[in-house]
Amino acid sequence: MVNVTPVTVLIPAFNEEPRIGAVLEVICNIERPHRIVVIDDGSKDGTSKVASQYPVDVLRHPHNRGKGAALQTGIDYIKGSPLWLFLDADLINLRPDHVEELLQPLEADESLGMTVGVFQGGKLNVDLAQQYFGILNGQRGFRGVFIENVPSLHWCRFGVEIFLSKLADHYRVPVSYPALKGITHHTKEEKFGFANGLYQRLKMYYECLYALLNWRKHCIADLYLPW
After folding, report:
1. 62 and 53 in contact (C-beta within 8 Å)?
2. Fewer CB within 10 Å, N or C, the chain?
3. 209 closest CA partner among 150, 151, 133, 118
4. 223 to each of 24, 80, 84, 111, 150, how far by Cα in Å?
5. d(CA 12, CA 20)
6. What whole-number distance in Å separates Cα of residue 114 and Cα of residue 142?
7. What is the pLDDT of residues 50-70, one digit of tens each?
8. Predicted confidence (pLDDT) per residue in 87-140, tens digit
9. Nearest to 181 by CA among 126, 108, 111
């Protein structure tokens, strides 16, 4: 194995009992040194129980605090890592090569601070959303110095990806967008039924819009990033 840089994988999860196992089956068997943290964000189902069957650390919020807060809990728990990988808990067709496609650009080019995966060849509606709203993709790799210096993510809920992308742009952090072929995810309507799924989708859009309009309030003027 050529690339041996250790990676910390954070997987925020909310009511993902039927789906998280498929992601953990893959990520727990990647070849590079790794530590995996599942952050159960107040699930009402058996998400934590399923995750606990794998060689991962499982952290739990007593109530739902949002995706950004879940990721911040994972960051605070680990404290430091040369590479970070953020993955969603509802991915379909995740493979080890997708992990490497997110991490290898960071190893090959020290100027990069973040990678953002772009789904290709999965569900058409998801691929189209990726094409036009790639800023929302949760499959991301990071250089340690980026994560260790960004402001707290606790406030931004589903807008966390927008906040991270806006920070990278603001501080001129180079970003790569590798294609993740064949991967996709469950839609909210598939997971929760049409009515509740639509409600959850609109709630997500609201949180994303809030982050888009308010990210500067949480931006630190003298943030140290070596770019």
Report:
1. no
2. N
3. 133
4. 34, 17, 19, 17, 7
5. 10
6. 4
7. 999 999 999 999 999 999 999
8. 999 999 999 999 999 999 999 999 999 999 999 885 556 555 556 555 789 999
9. 126
